[in-house]
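Deliverable D5.2: sample structural annotation.
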Amino acid sequence: MDLRPSCLCLFNIILLAGPACGLQITSTGPTSIEKASGETVKLDCQFTLAAEDSGPLDIEWSLQPSDNQKKEEVVIVYSGDRAFEHYYEPLKGRVHFNSPDPKNGDASMNIMGLKATDTGTYQCKVKKVPGISSRKILLTVMVRPSKPRCYAEGQTHAGKDMVLRCSSVEGTQPLQYIWERTTGNKLLPPLAVLDPVGGTMSLRNATEAASGTYKCIAKNRIGTEECLVEVNITQPPNTAGVIAGVVICILLVLILLALLLFCCCRARNKKKYEKEIAYEIREDVPPPKSRVSTARSFTSVGSQRSSLGSMSPSNLHEYTKPQYDKIPSEEYERPPSHAPIPPPSRMAGPNLSRMGAIPVMVPAQNRDGSIV
């Protein structure tokens, strides 16, 4: 085996500090690149060949694992004068060689539509036996802040403390939050306390002068996004007046309830009194006779009066005692229950007239039934 070319290259490197012999990657660009998501990046990998590099040309781009336990992922390959671009599924359709013919010395790779998951260390390896060389590039895909959400916390009354908050869900760290005032004198309140990392602005002992529109800007190295929040500081409500109004309302309700209760009790007592009076009247007045019995009694009394009017000594013997002792049975019939009927109570003349009775003159009789 002839070792003279290798020895000559080694002699040039060590003693003469000349250019290295064989295949070399000549790219001098940055080895660390930062790009925003959605953009396109070119990972540079230029190379030169030597006369003794006579083997087939192989170019391979791979993604180096961040953890030693993970394996290396091949991204794109050029071998046998052909490019193979579908090795790595997450980059499928978004990666290709920069040159249509990489064997001319340009093994650079382009990645389109960058995503945050594309962040990593990429290695370009060029091999043409006996020469071989490689280069690593750190790619960081940064995400610009998403549109932040602004809102206020706490009471919006004068003399109270409140906090304005601003937060972005997405965005590559470090994120910085900046508060500005867009109305009035555009100066922040003198007692405002800012937290650029947490995105808060505290307003202590807020006054009406702090009212206005505030803007929060979320910012990182890629871009910015902003949101607005409206602050309206008002005077606290008159608590004494509110309490007095509540007390008055309660008193009015109690008075209405008392009046309602009084009216109900009065109506109940009045109804009870009317019932008692009705019962007393019913106890003093016997039930009226039926119309048939009354008519018969009136007819009987009239006939007796006519008989008495025509009475003479010659016919007095016809009116004996048994005639006056005879009582019509239909006027004194007992009720169906066969309970004894109490004797009628004496009624005053006005009560009888009010009940519709007709005064009748009855001739006086002796104990033996004779007329006086």
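Annotation notes: Residues 239-284 form the longest helix (46 residues). Residues 1-20, 292-339 have pLDDT under 50 and may be disordered.
The annotation will be released with the project's public dataset once the embargo ends.
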